[in-house]
């Protein structure tokens, strides 16, 4: 109870008040990570901004508290990335192979950086490195819920080696 007699309910959400008194929920507390130099990264906010890139079908930002930058696992949008590769004359055997190509990784990273700038994200919120994932995340794969929300822990465990590689 506060001094005005209001009762607050602890939901684990992060919100902000608008000048008109409205409370907007902007993220979950557990989805906020503190980086090495004390900056806080709101994973959900960053993911929503970067999902604007045409190359992103799905994305999970990973912020390691022992580093000063975050990284991203990007489920690549197959049609967009293949169209780009065709325009570049980039040869590849299949979509998984295309996702391994350095040129494709650089193109997607540049697109994410552009989306981050448009959303006015801070430099530390913009992924420094990215891993392209060829296979979609579906409820059947266990990586997202039926409502298509990320199962962060499951994704982290599944792509543990890839995440370690991004910080190597």
Write the layout of secondary structure elements.
Blueprint: E1 13-17, E2 23-28, E3 32-34, E4 40-42, H1 43-50, E5 56-63, E6 70-76, H2 78-88, H3 95-100, H4 102-118, E7 129-133, H5 152-158, H6 160-166
Parallel strand pairs: 6-7
Antiparallel strand pairs: 1-2, 3-4, 5-6
Family: Belongs to the ATP-dependent AMP-binding enzyme family.
Catalytic activity: a long-chain fatty acid + ATP + CoA = a long-chain fatty acyl-CoA + AMP + diphosphate
GO molecular function, one term: long-chain fatty acid-CoA ligase activity
Which features would summarize this protein structure in a list?
GMP Synthetase, Chain A, domain 3, alpha+beta, 168 residues, single chain, elongated, 3-stranded mixed sheet, two-stranded antiparallel sheet
CATH superfamily: ANL, C-terminal domain
Class computed from helices, strands and strand pairing: alpha+beta
Biggest sheet, strands in spatial order? 5-6-7
Provide the CATH architecture: 2-Layer Sandwich
- Please give the count of helices: 6
- The termini sit apart by 48 Å
Largest sheet: 3 strands, mixed
**How many domains, in number, for the residues?**
1
* Gyration radius from CA atoms, angstroms: 18 Å
Annotation, overall tally of beta strands:
7
Residue windows where pLDDT falls under 50 for at least 5 positions: none
Order of helices and strands: EEEEHEEHHHEHH
CATH class: Alpha Beta
Helix amount:
25-40%
GO molecular function, one term: ATP binding
Catalytic activity: a long-chain fatty acid + ATP + CoA = a long-chain fatty acyl-CoA + AMP + diphosphate
InterPro entries: AMP-bd_C_sf (IPR045851), ANL_N_sf (IPR042099)
Family: Belongs to the ATP-dependent AMP-binding enzyme family.
